[in-house]
Sequence to fold (545 residues):
Amino acid sequence: MTDGNPESLRQQQTRLAAELRSAGKTWVETAEVFRDRFRLNPRVALRVVRGWSQAKAAEEWNQRWPNEPKSFKSFSYWEIWPGKGGYSPSQDNLARLAELYECSVADLLADLPSFRHLDSATASTPVTPEGVKPGLQGEIMVPSEAEILLRDLLGRRPGADADTPPQAETAGLYRRPEEVNFAELAQVITMWMQRVPHPQTRRDLLGKLTAALAIAATAPLTDLAGFTDSATAAPTLTDPARFEPATLAHCEAMIPNLRKQGDVLGAAATLPTALAYRRIAEQQAKAAPNGPHRDRAIATYAELTQLAGWLCFNTGDYHSAQRLYDDARAAAHDARAVELVTYILCTMSHLATWQGKPRIGIDHAAAASAWADQTGSPYARAYAADVAVRALTADNQNHQSKQALDREYAALQAALADQSPSQSWWYFYDESFYWSTNAQNALKFQGSEEVLAATERALNLSDQGNLHNRSFRLLYRAEAFARQKNIGLACQTIADVLELTSVNGTLRIEQRVQQLRNGLNPWKRTRAVRELDQAISAYRAQPAI
Fold:
């Protein structure tokens, strides 16, 4: 990258691929260069050399084999494999991947270990597969963009001083924040954390990463006209009375990224940035002229206010969450954003139910359902039914909760069949969410086998990048194991959550972990529970991020 014009990773890869292809290199040869330079496994490299995202690769696949459709999640699982959280492609899928990427099946599996050296007829020197460096043989590589992003944020790029603050490079890295793939970043961070077992090292690196991302997320604002920035204050408008369409558009574009950042790195790490953008959106709403611009600005302010409330909820600040939700609902009504009103009411229901006020949760769910019927959005109807299930379950209304589950399932099927674009805040809601709520209902009214079946489906369908949702689903599974008195599996599952939440820690997850641990007191002298206590102790030593 040049000194006055930083080149993004994607631009570097596009330029290099074009140069190699112009020089007559095959896709396989180009991918081998990418594997070496960007530390990719072959399945990632063969996709990236074409400039394809996982979603684009799935689109190309579906054009060729419409009867065997795949989503970006399929490519994500295949690319993580054989690492934790990945799934191996079947023989048929490997053959189709090879056809899609114009390579051999062996090219796709070149990172897997070779055991030829165990054959007594093989020379004493292990055989290194062609195109694989001996030092990398058998190593599980990770998605490139996120891996390099993580290294840049930590100031640990090759040749860089490990103690150098990352701020200098962060702004350039995030000139195009929409390029950040938080799902891949979550996968990388999770695998990376598994390789950093020492608690103090984790604390230091997590603190560095959190600070870097907070600065990175707000850095693009300094490029917009009319903004100032300082080392100690969030970006602010130099002329709050001026409406800037580009500024409002930037705030809108950042909301999905901030939601995903919260899922990956936790609420506390994301809240300051969300509040900064909320202040800017509020200024834009006040300055916007009457008409569509004003409604759009107020809706943006409402959505950022709801997001800030959600983050406060996860940090355990329920009073602030309620205050922000009330403000968000009022603003969404002012903007006549009916679907956003529905979503905010759903989150208010969730907050009330979590606080042990399920009847208030039922009231909010009923209001959400009434507004959802006016939207025509199956996602709005499905999620309104979902929060109703949770409130009715908490209120011990078995029959009514089952009816709400049926309504949710019907609306979910309509949502899955709907090909029209959906609002960005529904990104988290899919079939896995339904099965997760089903598991919560089963914990109250059914047996542990039903809970385990529901959590299995939820986890298999989950977005691997949403560490927040994955953690709660694992905790439902742990509770089912504990009810079966399978203490070893219960403790191991809770320990898996502790590993995930060393990256994405929230007070709500910590509370659930503690509740489950208290239920294991009759077995506190067993080895499994003692080891779990050690893991919990190490987890509590982590910084609040």
